[in-house]
Amino acid sequence: MSALFTGALGLLLLATGVLVPPGTGLAGAAALGVLLFLARLLAVHGFPGTASAALAAACAVEALAPALLLAGRLPGLEPLARPVETLVGSAGPAAVPVLACAAAALALLARAFALLTRASAHTP
């Protein structure tokens, strides 16, 4: 089911890629779409805590990146900003949301595979 959704989402993003200018970061939209789908899938099947924890983790990572950049401007704390600066410098500004959402989606996929393959996960 996840592969089918990911394929459909990929096709839709490719179709919209014709209309939007290049370099707008469709990978972030794909990662966010898969993350939200897996969170919804787990919540519907009775695991809302797992879904909300993954969404909160993705939000925390995205909020932490600018906080680290701001903290890196303080004297003596320059090393805090280096990982975010390196990531943005090498992959562009869309790399932080892509990384946050993709990591949370991958963790949710592993958890969904473990939880939803049980026979008791699909009781009425």
Which tags fit this structure?
124 residues, mainly alpha, 73% helix
Describe the fold and architecture.
With 124 residues, this protein is mostly helical. 73% of the residues lie in helices and 0% in strands. It contains five helices and no strands. Helix 1 (2-17) packs antiparallel against helix 2. The mean pLDDT is 88.
Structural class by helix and strand composition: mainly alpha
How many strands in all? 0
Separation of termini?
19 Å
> Which whole number gives the mean pLDDT?
88
Secondary-structure map:
Layout: H1 2-17, H2 26-44, H3 48-71, H4 82-91, H5 95-116
Helix pairs in contact: 1-2, 2-3, 2-5, 3-5
What's a quick, concise take on this entry?
This protein has 124 residues and is mainly alpha-helical. The chain has helices at 2-17, 26-44, 48-71, 82-91, 95-116. It contains five helices and no strands.
